[in-house]
Amino acid sequence: MIAFTRLIATILLLAFVATTAAASPLDDQIAAFAQAKPQDEAAVLRVLQAGIKEGRSAQAFAAVAEWLNSHPVTSQMLLFTAGRSAEYAGEWATAVAFYRQVLENPKVDPRFAAEATPAVYRLLLGPLGQPDAAYLFMRAHGDRLRVFGSARRYDAWFLATAKARGDTEAMTKRQAAIAEEAAATPPGDDEAAADPQPTEQALDPRRISQELVELPENAPPEAVEAAFEAAVQRAAAAGRPVAVIGIDRVAALPAWSPKVRGLAFSLFREHPPLNEYPVNAGYPQLVERTCGEFSRAKQWQAIESYAAGLWQAAASPDSRKPNQ
């Protein structure tokens, strides 16, 4: 794992070096913010937005963190951007705190809710490892927020957890929210009509990744690509986040097409597993290959939005990779 975390850190450092070799818009915004009297929400927002655009969220967030800690923020745009900047900077607990401020507003902007709701669930259940906090937040706000973005995909986990806790009230309320939406859903809306309580068989990673797992050793690259696409599509359509396995074959492809590259990247943000990345499933190899793809394309800034998933996946043990 040490080799992979060093690789991720190196790419993030290259992003910093590449954008600080000469003065950038972020540097200008930070300088303007430091001299501004008074310092206001608009100035803070400009710093954070410039940092995200340049892949330097850690530096941008550090420049305005003291202001954010000492001033009440009312702007949903600023709260959401602060959350995203903190997430990209690796400050996941802080990111969740900002996202929650956005989402606890009963009049939350749907644009922000669509991004922030699954981000809170993903961070709490994934790298932060706080399922109790995730459950309590979903219990308090999830019935209202489940219609935003990909939040519905966490219904199955919430209902299973409520059942395990004996929380009948939470189960009843969530099932009522699901039924109410289903009654109002027009035919053909597959996302809203997805099964909120899929069977364990439907969520079995070997079933999700059947084509990849059953590939012969001498399968040509086009067969590996087709199997990978089928697995990711099936995982995306499952009733809850579920891991794709057998992806060491994808990591070993001689070249990645743009489609394969996008699908691989999605496993670290849009389609991560519910909790930990699975053991012996090829994720350390995929992390190494993904970081190499970013590096070879000199897309160092772009890695920021995937960093949380990459860090977590790099920690997934794989006995077939001896030099972790």
Q: How are the secondary structure elements laid out?
A:
Layout: H1 2-20, H2 25-35, H3 41-54, H4 57-70, H5 76-88, H6 92-103, H7 110-125, H8 131-145, H9 155-165, H10 168-184, H11 205-208, H12 210-213, H13 221-237, H14 248-251, H15 258-266, H16 283-296, H17 307-314
Describe this structure in words.
With 324 residues, the chain is mainly α. Helices cover 62% and strands 0% of the residues. The protein contains 17 helices and no strands. Helix 4 crosses helix 5. It is globular, with a radius of gyration of 21 Å.
Low-pLDDT sequence parts: 17-21
Rg, Å, rounded: 21 Å
Number of helices: 17
Indicate the proportion of strand residues. Answer: under 5%
Helix content: 55-70%
The biggest beta sheet reads: none
Which structural class best describes the helix and strand composition?
mainly alpha
Shape: globular
Order of helical and strand elements: HHHHHHHHHHHHHHHHH
The whole-number mean of residue pLDDT values reads: 88
Task: Please give the number of β-strands.
Answer: 0
What is the CA–CA distance across the termini?
Answer: 4 Å
Brief summary:
With 324 residues, this protein is mainly alpha-helical. The chain contains 17 helices and no strands.
Question: Which characteristics define this entry?
Answer:
mainly alpha; globular; single chain; 324 residues; 17 helices
